[in-house]
Specification:
Structural class: alpha/beta
CATH superfamily of the largest domain: Medium-chain alcohol dehydrogenases, catalytic domain
Distance between the termini: 14 Å
Radius of gyration: 20 Å
Number of strands: 16
CATH topology of the largest domain: Quinone Oxidoreductase, Chain A, domain 1
Number of domains: 2
Length: about 350
């Protein structure tokens, strides 16, 4: 099968590797679509993803695949099912899994059958990721369906950060993740909701998606604007970009007992933390690796919103490329500015 591989020098290539093996509780899927994650995929390319050192690596994690083969003990998956979050789990032909969903084939597991048979957490064959390998409705739009991976991750982070109705919020960034935070904050009843972005076009996107106020931080004093709206400070400040200086800037915007939630992955893992302008009591929360169990628990809420028409995955997608143009897609995504989600399709 073909797979997108990055080597230790950051060079991308599409290579032939052996198709993945799968276990008795697993299924082989043929990939249908996968989103480019500028938080994970691009950090892996530039060797900036904390703790990941195994190269060459097969990229991709925001995927959807269709079941084509079943393990003998798989009971709750069937051929033709569309399943979220397929992965490559093992080294293949000297290539390590950087989750590997930009491959023609990948693997999912039947977590329900494993749990029923006593093969759940603690069993060496079980992975928490299996909880999040959930079956999608048959009529789902498969092109935009990878956004559901992002939605589950972000919604689980909203719950973990402690979002609550009527709490004030500023979100830094309006890429796919930042826009998801804005949308979910609106649906969860937060407000006022403020977005800090870096272009006038992103101001309009943020306002359309859920922000009550949006500011281009390159052309205004964002601290003054936020303090004008929330004189007592904001209850939540979320970094959806991955820049360490956002943490310090957020300090002087917080209300007492306010929360800074760091979701974006910064290439820098150290900084001088200055809380001289912060209230005496505040929280700093990092969610850089969302719990797959909590993602799975967020699935129904995401799908309910999609069914009701208040959440449309297509609105978060800006570009679609076939797998044969995946390197071109990554070149565009690396430029980044103004983009929403870039989707790769395999059909």
């Amino acid at each position: 099968m073909k797979s997108l591989i990055v080597d230790a020098e950051g060079n991308l290539s599409v290579r032939e590797i052996s198709k993945p093996q799968y276990g008795e509780y697993q299924a082989l899927v043929r990939m249908v679509s996968c989103g480019i994650c500028r938080g994970t995929d691009t950090k892996l390319i530039h060797r900036e993803f904390k703790g990941f050192v195994a190269y060459p690596a097969a990229l991709g994690h925001e995927g959807v695949g269709r079941v084509v083969e079943l393990g003998e003990k798989t009971r709750y998956l069937k051929k033709g099912d569309l399943v979220l979050l397929p992965f490559l789990e093992k080294e293949t032909d000297g290539v390590f899994p950087g989750w590997g969903a930009f491959s023609e084939l990948a693997v999912v597991a039947d977590s329900r059958a494993m749990l029923e048979d006593g093969k759940g957490p603690g069993d060496p064959a079980f992975s928490e990721a299996y909880y999040a390998q959930q079956v999608l409705p048959a009529d789902i739009d498969v092109v935009s369906a990878p956004m559901i991976v992002t939605f589950r991750e972000v919604l689980s982070a909203c719950h973990r950060f402690g979002f609550r109705p009527n709490a004030s919020l500023i979100v830094y960034g309006a890429g796919p993740v930042g826009l998801s935070f804005l949308k979910f904050a609106k649906l969860l009843g937060l407000g006022p909701i403020i977005a800090s972005v870096t272009s006038d076009a992103k101001v309009e996107e943020a306002l359309t998606t859920g922000a009550d106020y949006a500011f281009n931080s390159r052309s205004c004093d964002i601290v003054a604007e936020v303090r004008r709206i929330c004189q007592g400070g904001v209850d939540f400040a979320v970094d959806a970009v991955g820049k360490t200086d956002i943490i310090n800037q957020s300090m002087e915007l917080l209300a007492p007992y306010g929360h800074i939630g760091v979701y974006g992955i910064s290439p820098n893992t150290s900084m001088a933390l200055d809380w001289s302008k912060a209230p005496y009591n505040w929280h700093l929360d990092f969610i850089q690796w969302p719990s797959k169990l909590e993602e799975a628990e967020s699935y129904r809420q995401v799908m309910n919103w999609i069914e009701l028409g208040v959440l449309n995955p297509r609105e978060f997608v800006s570009s679609v490329f076939g797998f044969d143009r995946i390197q071109e897609a990554f070149e565009q995504a690396e430029q980044g500015s103004g983009l929403k989600k870039t989707i790769i399709t395999f059909d």
